[in-house]
Write a structure and sequence with these properties.
Rossmann fold; Dihydrodipicolinate Reductase, domain 2; Alpha-Beta Plaits; 3 domains; eleven-stranded mixed β-sheet; six-stranded parallel β-sheet; binds NADP nicotinamide-adenine-dinucleotide phosphate
Length: about 425
């Protein structure tokens, strides 16, 4: 058997401990599969005295995580600290520069600095691997970078954040509103104390930027993503969407559009008949539209100790077998500076909910604005009938340019009879 592959693990939280557990439980199985053993030699986290529920005594404790880089008993640095800046970035840069492979689950780091880090890895003939950074237990990086390497990819899209999907599912099943469900999700451990990264679509946006880079051979560019989270959605939207034959999902889409690339992360109405509508709770799903394979869908658990640690191990085993690939599937210097589409030009059907005073003439005001922007209504209904209480007016449109829809929305918001920010969502046909 060849000599062991030696790991230094930085970060012993949910994912780091998961990696230790798998290696301790399946060391012989992994050695048989790789033809060599995979051994942890050194570990680091903030607090050396913390009980992490696993035996860490066989490994060297390194006080400063940065010192894992350059150690001569570490072939691969596993970065599981997190964050796009600070110690995680410094460690990854130092390890790559000193000729160590890096495996990370850090989507924020790669979404912001992926192109430069990929170049650094190549300059030093080492790998920068990140299967765990996107959709946890779904091996989507491997599938896109290797399995679909012979295809031109037209689009990649999916549900990329388990917390949001759990919350949308719970809102639909219980009929309860966003704030109540968020509190329950926090108590159940499905949402962080500061949930903004998840519910504002940032976490899912990081993942979409990485998928987009692999799909289209472009530099990951989180800044140019159009992102909106799920805060504005209430139980009425969820119920009405179902009545119209749709389900609301936080959907990330990267697609070729007019010779450029469109990237958007936002809540959408998807047809109940599409399998993506059935992806519920903490599950993720990723669809890839290619020329030869056509459409493929993968689904599974997107986060958590087991699925994420499993993805880390898959990268580590690739390295143990000598399978080293360019970070984004093409040599780093050939990654393109993308031309991003102006999504104002895209055309879709829309769902719009307005919270209005139930007074004569309100519907006429709404219709006038829609007519002025050349927006044709597919259906319109009023929910509630009390002159003293706000009521919801809900409409769906025929195909409309996004820019026109947004202009109409800002005019609705200025009407005295409209009491809240209009809730506008795209109806994504997914065809
Ligand atoms: N959790 C998931 O389901 C999941 C899924 C996909 C991707 N990820 C990604 O995986 C990475 C780790 O996530 P996690 O959930 O395992 O995080 P976590 O539970 O918060 O663990 C973070 C670990 O990093 C250590 N750490 C923090 N600052 C440090 C520093 N300055 N120096 C050394 N160690 C430091 C912490 O040490 P102490 O324990 O001593 O405080 C802790 O062990 C993140 O990039 C995350 O986005 C996580």
């Amino acid at each position: 058997m060849s000599k062991p592959l030696r790991l230094g693990i930085a970060g012993l939280g949910t994912v780091g401990v998961g990696v230790v557990k798998i290696l301790q439980a399946h060391g012989d199985l992994l050695a048989q599969r790789c033809g060599r053993r995979i051994e942890i030699t050194a570990i680091s986290a903030r607090d050396a005295s913390k009980d992490r529920g696993v035996d860490l005594s066989p490994y060297v404790w390194v006080e400063d995580a940065l010192d894992l880089a350059g150690r001569d008993d570490v072939d691969v640095v596993i970065e599981l600290i997190g964050g796009s800046e600070g110690v995680a970035k410094d460690l990854v840069e130092k390890a790559l520069a000193t000729g160590q492979h890096v495996v990370t689950a850090n989507k924020a780091l790669l979404a912001h600095h992926g192109a430069a880090l990929a170049q650094l890895a190549e300059d030093n003939n080492v790998a920068l691997a990140y299967e765990a950074a996107v959709a946890g237990g779904i091996p989507i990086i491997k599938v896109m970078r290797e399995g679909f390497a012979g295809n031109a990819i037209h689009a990649v899209y999916g549900i990329l954040n388990g917390t949001c999907n759990y919350m949308l599912t719970a809102m639909r099943e219980t009929g309860r509103d966003f704030d109540v469900i968020l509190k329950e999700a926090q108590e159940a451990g499905y949402a962080e104390a500061d949930p903004s990264f998840d519910i504002d679509g940032i976490d899912a946006g990081h993942k979409l930027a990485l998928l987009s880079a692999i799909a289209f051979g472009v530099k990951p560019d989180f800044e140019s993503l159009q992102i909106e989270g799920i805060r504005k959605i209430n139980a009425t939207d969820i119920r009405l969407a179902e009545e119209f034959g749709y389900r609301i999902k936080l959907l990330g889409i990267a697609r070729r559009f007019n010779g450029s690339v469109m990237q958007v992360m936002e809540p959408c109405l998807v047809p109940l008949s599409n399998p993506i509508a059935q992806i519920e709770d903490v599950y993720n799903a990723v669809y890839v539209d290619c020329d030869s394979v056509e459409t493929s869908m993968l689904s599974g658990k997107g986060a958590g100790e087991g699925p994420t640690a499993s993805a880390v191990l898959s990268d580590v085993m690739d390295l143990a077998r000598g399978n080293i690939l360019p970070t984004f599937g093409v040599p780093a210097q050939s990654l393109l500076d993308p031309r991003w589409a102006d999504i104002g030009d895209t055309v879709s059907c829309y769902y719009l909910r307005l919270c209005v005073l139930d007074k004569p003439g309100v519907i006429a005001e709404i219709s006038t604005i829609l007519r002025d922007h050349d927006i044709s209504i597919e259906g319109l209904s009023q929910h509630g009938r009390d002159p003293d209480q706000p009521v919801s007016v809900v409409l769906t449109t025929h195909e409309t340019r996004r820019r026109d829809m947004q202009k109409a929305c800002s005019e609705f918001a200025n009407l005295d009879s409209v009491l809240e920010e209009p809730c506008l969502m795209r109806i994504e046909a997914l065809s």
